[in-house]
């Protein structure tokens, strides 16, 4: 016996929720959704070196702040976006294996550009992270060999910008970090 189509109301399935559910269940790959397009995250060794350098410099301060650094998913509810930052710093109390976080729950989001996604990181993600309240967005631009720190997010973007600074110039991370971040290993 077949079931009539009206007995399964597929039209009630929210496409945003369905897409974000699917992206979380891709096995073996890190993937994100950028303006509705699925993109695979494939970091290089140079990319990872920059992230490792940042993590090492933040480690002692993160212990004091009771925060966790990681690459967990960030949802941007109400938009076709699901980001996987290169590094996000979040309070330890928010870290749970199954919990999905949003940008305003972070203390810092770091993105390292690659040849394939540099413009997306410079423009689209910067705008979206500000719109969704990420307090600090550090852009490590490997193509331009610069670092830029964006702060004071709002619906129209970040209102405070430090940079772009050439690699080798220390970046001042404001409180709660209060440290100078060396950029010579990027």
Strand order of the largest sheet: 3-6-7-8-9-10
Q: Work out the strand percent.
A: 25-35%
**CATH fold-level label:** tt1808, chain A
Average pLDDT value? 86
Order of helices and strands: HEEHEEEEEHEEEEE
Name of the CATH class: Alpha Beta
Sheet with most strands: 6 strands, mixed
Rg, nearest Å: 18 Å
The oligomerization state is single chain
Total helical segments: 3
Task: Characterize the overall form.
Answer: globular
Unreliable segments (pLDDT under 50, ≥5 consecutive)? none
Description:
The structure is a single chain. With 186 residues, the protein is of the alpha+beta class. The protein has one domain: tt1808, chain A (Alpha-Beta Complex), CATH 3.90.1570.10. Helix content is 24%, strand content 32%. The protein contains 3 helices and 12 strands, in the order αββαβββββαβββββ. It has helices at residues 15-24, 45-65, 118-131, and strands at residues 31-34, 37-40, 67-70, 74-76, 81-83, 87-91, 108-112, 136-141, 146-154, 157-166, 171-173, 179-181. A 6-stranded mixed β-sheet has the order 3-6-7-8-9-10. Strands 1-2 form a two-stranded antiparallel sheet. Strands 4-5 form a two-stranded antiparallel sheet. A hairpin with a 4-residue loop joins strand 8 and strand 9. The longest helix is centred in the first third of the chain and has 21 residues, at 45-65.
């Amino acid at each position: 016996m077949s079931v009539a189509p009206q007995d399964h109301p597929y039209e009630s399935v929210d496409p945003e929720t369905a897409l974000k559910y699917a992206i979380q269940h891709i096995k073996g790959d890190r993937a994100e959704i950028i303006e509705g397009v699925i993109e695979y995250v494939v970091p290089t060794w140079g990319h990872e070196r920059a992230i490792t350098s940042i993590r090492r410099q933040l480690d002692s301060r993160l212990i004091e702040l009771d925060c966790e650094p990681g690459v967990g998913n960030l949802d941007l509810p109400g938009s076709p976006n699901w980001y996987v930052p290169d590094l996000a710093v979040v309070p330890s109390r928010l870290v749970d294996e199954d919990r999905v976080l949003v940008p305003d729950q972070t203390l810092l989001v770091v993105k390292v550009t690659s040849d394939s996604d540099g413009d997306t990181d410079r423009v689209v993600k910067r705008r979206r992270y500000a719109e969704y309240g990420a307090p600090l967005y550090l852009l490590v631009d490997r193509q331009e060999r610069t670092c830029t720190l964006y702060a004071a997010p709002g619906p129209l973007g970040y209102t405070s910008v430090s940079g772009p600074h050439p690699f080798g110039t220390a970046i001042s991370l404001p409180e709660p970090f209060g440290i100078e971040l060396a950029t010579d290993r990027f």
